[in-house]
Amino acid sequence: MIVAMTEILEKIAACVENGKIDVNSPYPPSMKGQEGAFELTKHALDQGIAPSVIMDDALIPAMSRVGQKFSRNEIFVPQMLMAAKAMNSSMIHIKPFYISGETKRKGTFIIGTVRGDLHDIGKNLVAMMIEGAGWEIIDLGVDVSTEKYIAAVEQKPEAVVGLSALLTTTMENMRSCVRELRSRFDGLKILVGGAPVTEEFCKNIGADFYSPDPQGAVEYLRNLE
Ligand code: B1M
């Protein structure tokens, strides 16, 4: 049983790492015709492997390797998106266990692109990687007003908040958003990122952490677990 369990977990992890969604997906060509993360996760659950074990021993380490490769420029946005899609296909089977409360999330992460900014590709990647690290994601979308962040934190006061901005103009909206959130919520952790954002800017506006990429955000959250 232990060998079978290790084997199927390794296969799920390989599917996620390589972006193999399901049996019908042609990507990657080297895995064409093989079962993907979708089918293998179903088999693992049918064999009695706990969803938390699939998360902790297959999905999270696989997504972590994906994040590290992306940070080292060994893979790029398309490969990362495929990995996230494979992970999402596995999560179709696992999510019901979170909803029922049978399996616990590591925390809640509220993310959005700040007011005036419509760029969401990077924000979505960050959200996917953090979900892949076992966190619940509340994605507020793009052009998110400070009021919307406040309402979300009121619903989930224990959450960590992430602000993304891609324009030098809209990154300034992070400043007022951080100020407002700070004035209302003691101890709230705020993470910022996006192409024009820097460590210095993060310090300057009083956010807790700046990450240039999804993996840095995942590692920051891991230290908070
Ligand atoms: Co826009 N755009 N755009 N655009 N766009 C840029 C950002 C720009 C650099 C292009 C350029 O001129 N060279 C420029 C900004 C210049 C500046 O401010 N200095 C620009 C401009 C000017 C504009 C418009 C104003 C153009 C116009 O209408 N005149 C307009 C603004 C609209 C608005 O937002 N109000 C606009 C519109 C658009 C589109 C709608 C057409 C489209 C967005 C589609 C979408 O997102 N759904 C678009 C795109 C695609 C781009 C470029 C080409 C690509 C951005 C992208 O997705 N990168 C971009 C030029 C470029 O970057 N080459 C550009 C890939 C993505 C994976 O990277 O988002 O940086 P990125 O995310 C990274 C990290 O930054 C980090 O992790 C991600 C993965 O590594 N990260 C975080 C991101 N968020 C994070 C949050 C975190 C942590 C890490 O914690 C919370």
Précis, in short:
The protein has 225 residues and is α/β, with parallel strands linked by helices. The chain contains 9 helices and 5 strands.
Mind explaining what this structure looks like?
The protein is of the alpha/beta class and 225 residues long. It folds into 2 domains: 2-100, Methionine synthase domain (Methyltransferase, Methionine Synthase (B12-binding Domains), Chain A, domain 1, Orthogonal Bundle); 108-224, Rossmann fold (3-Layer(aba) Sandwich), CATH 3.40.50.280. The protein has helices at residues 2-18, 37-46, 51-71, 77-99, 121-132, 146-155, 171-184, 199-205, 214-224; strands at residues 108-113, 136-139, 160-164, 190-193, 209-210. α7 links the parallel β3 (160-164) and β4 (190-193). The longest helix has 23 residues, at 77-99. The radius of gyration is 18 Å and the shape is globular. The mean pLDDT is 94. CO-5-methoxybenzimidazolylcobamide (B1M) binds at residues 77, 111, 116-123, 125-126, 162-164, 166-168, 191-196, 211, 213-214, 217.
**Number of discrete helical segments:** 9
Unreliably modeled segments: none
State the major sheet. 5 strands, parallel
Helix and strand string, N-terminal first?
Answer: HHHHEHEHEHEHEH
Shape: globular
Which molecules are bound in this entry? CO-5-methoxybenzimidazolylcobamide
User: What portion of residues belong to β-strands?
Assistant: 5-15%
Structural class: alpha/beta
Strand order of the largest sheet: 2-1-3-4-5
